[in-house]
Amino acid sequence: MASQDSGTRLGDISRFLTAIKALLEVAAVALLGQLCAMAVLIWLGWDARADLLADREAVLLLVAGNALFTMLLILALQGAQGRGLHHLGWTRRGWKLEALLGVATLPLLVLLVVSTTVLFHLLLPGWASEDNPLLELIRTRWDLFWFVLSGIFVGGVQEEIQRAFILDRF
């Protein structure tokens, strides 16, 4: 009977340590990408006291750097366990259907965003922003291209893999 109790306690300790490890991994994935991207910006000479939204290159570097460092950390943590992105649901199987569904839902999403914006302006005018500082950074077609590309990469790739990683850990 005593050996069963010690086995149960060891199992409880093991589950507790696994949960702590998962919590630390999730915290690292949530925070370290941003910190590393900021460190690179500062290393490149960006003044940390300056207004980030006034510099489009700094915004793009921060967004892309955050996504890149976060993805590399996820790959490293997955690799340390002998797992790849396929364990998070990132497979080649069915990608064409997924892409088609994504493109097909785009008009609905645009309609939803425009409707929500109009409703906010009508019903909660004090909460609606009159200007968007990020839109003010887009001055050329290349700016638009890089912002769209970073939005697709960050919102469509990095965000989904990070979410899958966090869900897998919990």
Averaging pLDDT over every residue, what do you get? 85
Question: What is the share of helical residues?
Answer: over 70%
Beginning-to-end CA distance, first to last residue: 32 Å
Low-confidence stretches: none
Q: Please count the helical segments.
A: 5
- Give the overall silhouette: globular
Sheet with the most strands, sense and barrel status: none
* SS elements, strand count: 0
Could you say which structural class the secondary elements and strand pairing correspond to?
mainly alpha
Structure description:
This protein is mainly α and 170 residues long. It has helices at residues 2-43, 56-80, 95-123, 133-136, 141-169. The radius of gyration is 21 Å and the shape is globular.
Sequence-ordered SSE layout with sheet pairings:
Blueprint: H1 2-43, H2 56-80, H3 95-123, H4 133-136, H5 141-169
Helix pairs in contact: 1-2, 1-5, 2-5
List keywords for this structure.
5 helices; 170 residues; globular; mainly alpha; single chain; 76% helix
Structure summary:
By secondary structure, this protein is mainly α.
